């Protein structure tokens, strides 16, 4: 008697899980498909872009080891003069400097509309400019807005809408997807070990019907994708709802939201001590401290005319080419060029390292190229789930209709 009740209870539970899985899938399926397929497309963005632009990423300057780069502000003026002659509307106010002297400097052009509600009226100008730092020659200008990878990334993050609107829709859909992954595992989990073994791989030797094969595709691919997909989805939620990043930080930081205070490091030297080569002094200091890093960025904006306040000059150092988790930073007095604080990656807390790794975990880069391959395959599996799930639902729906007609 008790055994029957338990079996009935389990059946009723799975029946409710099935209904939730079905309706949540129907509601979010199209968004999950779009987000998954664009995610798969974007995974190798940096690798492919680096390969296709290697003729400008490397300046190919002869005997560059024996030549000093043009001072940064002088180089900036040369670049902006050339850009103006090319018909560019705005000037560059920032530069990314590679540690490897064989690589070109990269200047940025950015003009955005913060009130824009979609992709097309938010990013007005967004370009990368590659420059030979030894001659000042502009090697190439690339419009990021026309880059299919960037288009896919915005579609992935916010469905080509503003982050406030589209990001929220994607975030909610991702939360629904996490629920579906968990409910899918519950539905997949068989009653005994023998049945469990049969669900780990396709057994199509005596199966001819495509509906059964589609059902197996949904269940088996869903099972194998679910564990990695949970990591990808949860890190995606952290991007959509930044408050979740704080929750993760607190969880890993012993329940405390406290983080190191760097506001004490401020520019105190008078502006009169600053010279056009102060920024070069800062760049040289960065290179001395991080000779094996990949690159670092410098803000070259005229701070008096800037649209945001500067207490100091903050320099972020990217230590590897295709990852962002392993990064350090330095704080300088922007007038004197004095190093106020150096914060290498190794000195960061575990909570900070973990939350900084969100992007790399999301795209698989945290585990190197192998991780990217797994993220790519996982994203394709995830994209297939709404399709195979819809086919299962449609087939069962039509089957019920046929049965009803036959009975009448």
TrEMBL record:
Pfam families (alphabetical): PepSY_TM
Annotated TM spans: 21-44, 165-189, 221-241, 373-394
Alphabetized UniProt keyword annotations: Membrane, Transmembrane, Transmembrane helix
Name assigned to this protein: PepSY domain-containing protein
Organism: Myroides albus
């Amino acid at each position: 008697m008790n055994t029957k009740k338990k079996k009935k209870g389990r059946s009723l539970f799975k029946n409710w899980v099935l209904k939730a899985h079905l309706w949540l899938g129907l509601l979010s399926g199209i968004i999950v498909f779009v987000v998954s397929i664009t995610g798969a497309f974007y995974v190798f963005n940096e690798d492919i872009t680096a390969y296709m632009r290697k003729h400008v990423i490397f300046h190919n300057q002869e005997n560059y080891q024996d030549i000093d780069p043009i001072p940064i502000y002088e180089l900036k003026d040369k670049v902006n003069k050339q850009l103006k002659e090319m018909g560019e509307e705005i000037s560059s106010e920032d530069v990314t400097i590679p540690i490897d002297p064989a690589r070109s400097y990269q200047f940025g052009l950015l003009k955005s509309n913060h009130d824009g509600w979609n992709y097309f009226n938010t990013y007005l100008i967004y370009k990368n400019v590659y420059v030979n730092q030894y001659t000042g020659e502009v090697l190439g200008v690339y419009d990021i807005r026309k880059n299919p990878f960037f288009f896919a990334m915005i579609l992935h993050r916010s469905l080509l809408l503003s982050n406030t609107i589209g990001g929220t829709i994607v975030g909610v859909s991702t939360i629904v997807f996490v629920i579906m992954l968990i409910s899918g595992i519950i539905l997949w989990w068989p009653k005994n070990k023998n049945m469990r073994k049969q669900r780990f791989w396709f057994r199509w030797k005596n199966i001819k019907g495509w509906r059964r094969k589609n059902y197996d595709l949904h269940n088996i691919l869903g099972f194998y994708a679910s564990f990695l997909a949970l990591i990808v989805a949860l890190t995606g939620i952290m991007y959509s709802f930044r408050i979740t990043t704080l929750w993760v930080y607190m969880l890993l930081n012993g329940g405390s939201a406290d983080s190191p205070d760097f506001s004490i490091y401020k520019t105190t030297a008078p502006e009169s001590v600053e010279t056009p080569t102060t920024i070069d002094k800062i760049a040289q200091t960065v290179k001395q401290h991080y000779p094996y890093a990949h690159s670092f960025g410098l803000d070259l904006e005229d701070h008096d005319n800037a649209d945001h306040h500067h207490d100091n000059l903050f320099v972020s150092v990217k230590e590897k080419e295709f990852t962002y988790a392993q990064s350090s930073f330095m704080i300088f007095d922007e007038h004197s060029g004095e190093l106020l604080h150096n914060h290498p990656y190794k000195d960061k807390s575990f909570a900070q390292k973990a939350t900084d790794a969100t992007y790399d975990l999301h795209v698989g880069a945290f585990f190197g190229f192998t991780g990217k391959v797994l993220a790519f395959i996982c994203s394709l599996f995830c994209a297939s789930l709404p399709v195979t799930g819809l086919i299962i639902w449609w087939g069962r729906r039509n089957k019920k209709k046929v049965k009803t007609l036959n009975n009448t």
